[in-house]
Amino acid sequence: MPDTTIAHSFDESHIAQAERSVASHTDSILPVSVTDLAFTADGKRLVYIDRLTLRAGGSTIIMGPNGAGKSLLLRLLHGLIGASEGTVLFNSQPMSARVRRRQAMVFQRPVVLRRSVRANIDYALSAHGYRGLNRRERLRDLLEMGELADMARQRARTLSGGEQQRLALVRAVAASPDLLFLDEPTSSLDPASTHRIEALIRRFAEEGTKIVMVTHDLGQARRLADEIVFMHHGKVTEQTPANVFFDRPSSPAARDFITGGLLV
Amino acid sequence: MINPRKLLAFATVLTVHLAFGSATSMAQDRFIIVQSTTSTENSGLLDTILPAFTDKSGIEVRVVAVGTGQAIKNAENGDGDVLLVHAKLAEEEFVADGWGVKRFDVMYNDFVVVGPEDDPAGIAGSRDAVAALRKIAESEAPFASRGDDSGTNKAELGLWKEAGIDVRSASGGWYRETGSGMGATLNTGTGMGAYVLTDRATWISFGNKENHRVLVEGDPKLFNQYGVILVNPDKHSNVKAEEGQAFIDWLTGSEGQAAIADFTIDGKQLFFPNAQ
Amino acid sequence: MHDFASSLSLAVNLILSGDAELWSIVLLSLRVSLTAVAVAAVIGMPVGAALAVGRFAGRRALIVLMNALMGLPPVVVGLMVYLMLSNSGPLGVLQLLYTPTAMIIAQVVLVTPIVAALTRQVVEDIDAEYAEQLRSIGVSRLASVPTLLWDGRTSLLTAVLAGFGRATAEVGAVIIVGGNINHVTRVMTTTIALETSKGNLALALALGAILMLIAISVNAAVGLLGATSERAAHA
Ligand SMILES: Nc1ncnc2c1ncn2[C@@H]1O[C@H](COP(=O)(O)OP(=O)(O)O)[C@@H](O)[C@H]1O
Ligand SMILES: [Mg+2]
To answer: Which chains touch C (3 or more CB pairs under 8 A)?
Structure first.
């Protein structure tokens, strides 16, 4: 019988292989190591994670019921909000300008600037220090990648939801980050749009970007996940390879979540 | 893509151009500021006679037309070179306190009492201003006063005092202080059917008479003397004494006096030169 | 009795006659108010943005001051500026009283709080939406200000137009510091006040109609400019 404590049953050989594949990145910001991370608001501890490690290679999908603290965790990891306690280390380094440059985030509702599609991407490139020919070429590639070249001059806010999210996605990977956080990026999209977003995410993962994504969509999780992190009441209750999680989830909460019977 | 920096640069250039570009082009280099009253301005007297002086002297005259009280205060602050008002006592005090160099008589016009045709106080045709005011007070017919410490206001208050009537106690009742200029007070007076003491010049050129007409005139007590004073350059070094004195000399000299006498509206002479 | 029809026909006649006097007054009005609004925008927008984005000591006090200034009657602003620029005042040496520059200063004081307050609102709203995204891209709080202003440009244009409205419609302040001197500091509003005091109500009303026409034209021109720059920004 699986117990309800946090399970760290990630395949050791798989990890070793992943670490070798990024061995050339001596300046990589992975792995991400979390120790005793807490976020408290109004005297309530909304997130508490004693230990969590996100390793290079493979996509990590975070699941859990609404209000479990998934979005808070992503924002804590990405440094958008400050932790009340604990530390987040990126390859043993604390958050810094360099570490921030190597990671990006896509939000549930895409934040598109009140500019043209290309200006949106160009803005990120400029902020990341791209200049001249380099910048123009990268801009063209990214428009291509997001299938947005035809609407490059269109006002970004007039795009459909799916197109806006594709724009947010390629803008996020403008500077080829090591680590990409995604918070329910397809939750308000139709199946076709979802499919295109997933294809992009899979492509980024194959190109070596570590994906850390929150989703409620079990099918999506099955399609994309290499490992699952399950959260409940602000805590990580298990971190398991995806196939193991869907076959035999170790915590009752996760089991109930999969069968749709979890009541918060 | 519009470059915000270029836009800002353009806005700056435009601003500088707007602010300073044509500031001096249309104005003369030599000018004086005359602190004067609304009655001289509203009647059109100064607009009519000043070009002759400017043509001759090359000095532009910029007139700030406010109530006499404010004109004197502004002149005390040094915000003018010449004071041209009609409140003899206050003018003499202005000179005595050292704010002005010397006071000269320039001209006079007269005050009249205007009121509605139906004349509820029955003062029409009277040549005794004090008696007429007393009748107004007795009948409690509405009377609109400027209440702004202007020359006209001071003259009016002097007449009430002589009539032995305490208008302060009636304020807000039949005695209504508008706290504004002659024209605004006349607009109020014609609007509410009130009696008004006004200088004749403003009344004749006033365009909104409605059913009001002159009811009391010809009393020597309604005599309205204008004086001109050079602001004391010892008090304010910025005062353009030479140009200001040139204007005073012209105004009180034969040319200026003739110009004042020649100024008419509807064939009526409004100001009577009486410089010594 | 003054009637609207005669005022309106008078206004049309005045415009059609191309009266030089009227034109110089209109141009001076535009010059004073447009300059004042430009200066107010240059001061008010960064201040408003700083109040929206910054977390510094005295921020709350500055917001209160800004809101208080916004409610100041123009006459009081006129008096304050008069006391500063008067020859007995601290800035008397500049010799600015009774000049168009004095009127510009008074209008800047009147308009800047409006522009700053509206800018703060606009920037705060956009910041609420953008803050995390910009932070994620690595843009600092300070560096995000130009982005927020630029992306708020349509709303900011409205803020500036509101300021322009207050500037052109205002009479109490400019009549005190400008002195309503013929051919020097006489603008539309002071002319309207003067003609009203002369009892020329129809003429005053006609001038009012022309002032309204100017306001509409400027609004339309700015709207057109805004639309053009919007298109250009996406080209
Ligand atoms: N800044 C905050 N202050 C207070 N409470 C917050 C804050 N952000 C989130 N919460 C609360 O924390 C809990 C977890 O939120 P969230 O991480 O958004 O959940 P989810 O797992 O659905 O993404 C929720 O109850 C939410 O109301
Ligand atoms: Mg969430």
So the answer is: A, B
Q: How far apart are CA C213 and CA C206, in angstroms?
A: 11
Residue A122: count of CB within 10 angstroms of its CB: 22
**Ligand with the closest atom to the CA of A45:** 1
Give helix B129-139 / helix B151-163 axis angle, nearest 10°.
Answer: 80
Report residue B206 as tokens.
Answer: 């006033």
Q: Do the beta carbons of residue B199 and residue B109 sit within 8 Å?
A: yes
Q: How far apart are CA C118 and CA C48, in angstroms?
A: 7
Q: Tokens for B107?
A: 């001209």
Handedness of CA B7, B12, B15, B17 (dihedral sign): negative
Per residue of chain C (235 residues), give pLDDT as tens: 456 788 888 888 888 887 888 889 999 999 999 999 999 999 999 999 999 998 888 889 988 998 888 888 999 999 999 999 999 999 999 999 999 999 999 999 999 999 999 999 999 999 999 999 999 999 999 999 999 999 999 899 988 998 998 999 999 999 999 999 988 999 999 999 988 888 888 888 888 988 999 889 888 887 787 777 666 655 4
Question: pLDDT band for position B2 (50/70/90)?
Answer: very low
Model confidence, pTM: 0.82
Say if CB C234 and CB A115 are below 8 A apart: yes
Other CB atoms within 10 Å distance of the CB of residue A98: 12
Rg (CA), chain A: 18
Q: The CATH number of B10-108+224-273 is which of 3.30.390.10, 3.40.50.620, 3.90.1110.10, 3.40.190.10?
A: 3.40.190.10
How many Å apart are CA A87 and CA A89, to the nearest integer?
6
Alpha-carbon distances, residue C203 vs B100, B200, C20 (angstroms)? 38, 22, 16
Domain covering B110-222 assigned CATH 3.40.190.10 in the classification: yes
For residue A151 the two structure tokens come to 């609407």
Pocket test for ligand 1, best of A61, A72, A212, A262 (most atoms within 8 A of CB): A72
Pinpoint the alpha helices (H) of B164-220: 167-170, 182-192, 200-205
- CB of C35 within 8 Å of any CB in chain B? yes
The CATH number of domain A2-258 is 3.40.50.300: yes
Exposed (0-12), middle (13-18) or buried (19+): which is C207, by Cβ within 10 Å? buried
> Cβ(B100)–Cβ(B75) under 8 Å?
yes
Cβ proximity of C45 and C38 under 8 Å: no
Please tell me the number of the ligand nearest to residue A109's CA.
2
Residue A262: strand, helix, or coil: coil
Taking the C-alpha atoms of residue A71 and residue A213, their distance in angstroms, rounded to an integer, is 10
Q: Where are the domains of chain B?
A: 10-108+224-273, 110-222
Domain edges within chain A: 2-258
A71 Cβ below 6 A of ligand 1: yes
Let me know if the fold of B10-108+224-273 is the same as that of B110-222.
yes
Q: What are phi and psi of B209, to 5 degrees?
A: -75, -25
Q: What is the ipTM of this complex?
A: 0.85
Calculate how close chain A gets to C53, using CA atoms only, in Å.
16
Nearest in space to C91 (alpha carbons), one of C83, C103, C99: C83
Superfamily of domain C43-224: MetI-like (1.10.3720.10)
Would you kindly state where each structural domain of chain C is located, as residue ranges? 43-224
The dihedral over CA atoms of B35, B39, B44, B45, expressed in degrees to the nearest 10, equals -70
DSSP summary character for residue B64: E
SS3 B72: helix
Query: What residues does A116 pair with on adjacent strands?
Result: A155
Which atom of ligand 1 sits closest to the CA of residue A66? 22
- Distance from the first to the final alpha carbon of chain B: 73
Tell which atom from ligand 1 comes closest to the C-alpha of A75: 17
Rounded Cα distance between B244 and A98, Å, is 73
Closest residue in B to C149 (Cα–Cα): B4
